[in-house]
Amino acid sequence: MPGSVLITSSELAKEVMACGLKCMAFLIFMSVWGIIFLSILGGLYYNQSVGLFENLPKEDMAACSIKDWDCRKKHLVDLYHQNAYNCWIAAAGYVVIGLLACFRICCLRSRG
């Protein structure tokens, strides 16, 4: 077509790049922050921090009677440990996101 400008795919990729260096650096920063925060939070849950008691899921009152303290204590410890495992799984998700962002930065730098 006369008067049309041909744009190569590399030029188009540079202009429309949504996942550039700044975005990836931000993702790496958020990943590091999330890993640190969730690891510490998981450790606090695993050690049964009293301050996190209100954040536990509701007790299943059908599992234990109100007067059976040993059963309730075991159930609460299980709830604390489950929350700790959930935090550590989320931290592992941040590890994956951070590694993918690092890989993307390496790919962007190798292109030039």
UniProtKB/TrEMBL annotation:
Principal localisation: membrane
Subcellular location: Membrane
UniProt GO molecular function: RNA endonuclease activity
Family assignment from sequence similarity: Belongs to the RNase K family.
Protein's name in the database: Uncharacterized protein
PANTHER family in the record: RIBONUCLEASE KAPPA
Membrane-crossing residue ranges in chain numbering: 24-46, 88-107
Membrane topology listed for this record: Multi-pass membrane protein
GO cellular component: membrane
Gene: Acey_s0309.g2078
Keywords, ordered alphabetically: Membrane, Transmembrane, Transmembrane helix
